Amino acid sequence: NAGVMQNPRHLVRRRGQEARLRCSPMKGHSHVYWYRQLPEEGLKFMVYLQKENIIDESGMPKERFSAEFPKEGPSILRIQQVVRGDSAAYFCASSPRLAGGRETQYFGPGTRLLVL
Amino acid sequence: QQQVKQSPQSLIVQKGGISIINCAYENTAFDYFPWYQQFPGKGPALLIAIRPDVSEKKEGRFTISFNKSAKQFSLHIMDSQPGDSATYFCAASPYSGNTPLVFGKGTRLSVIA
Fold first, then answer.
1. Which positions in chain B touch A60 (Cβ < 8 Å)?
2. Cross-chain residue pair A91–B43, CB shorter than 8 Å
3. What are the Cα distances from residue B4, in Å, to B15, B22, B87?
4. pLDDT, mean of each 10-residue run, chain B (113 residues)
5. Contact predicate B4/B24, CB 8 Å
């Protein structure tokens, strides 16, 4: 059973360009979370999605950032008009369908975004 | 109230020693406390987790101690090994539902021979 997959692993963009980060959850997982990790910082929650639904986007910046998890295909985190402050590691995590109680979140290897 | 405070920021331990990392929280709705281990260039991986119904949980060389009244929990790594050198994150969330985790800032552990 393959783990959470993210691509690309490294992404370089110039200021003003768009960044698209993809996340394929583990097989059978229907919940996806995106976290951002700045250097020397912990992971900060951004958005929580289920298939075709955004459940909680309280951690997403109001502008330039969007996320989706379509019925088919990976989850996408999209950053428009990137700025240098967007440089960070972006991690995706997935968990199984809620069956009562807590489900472990499994993290992908991350996408390291560098904005020049 | 959503913060999880983690200390120390970095830690150097001799091989065979005990590594201790501490975390504190304020939100009384938190009742699930996992620890994640992260190696450079990798994503975090769940190491061990505890709920407040027990004061201690042990898995191999890793032990979580939990103090509900003080709203503190800690990770102890016994017989620390160089392969344990990594960044460790504590986290917290309500147990019910797939709610997002609130992470501490991490502790960079170096185990030296």
1. none
2. yes
3. 28, 10, 16
4. 88 97 94 92 91 91 94 96 96 80 94 94
5. yes
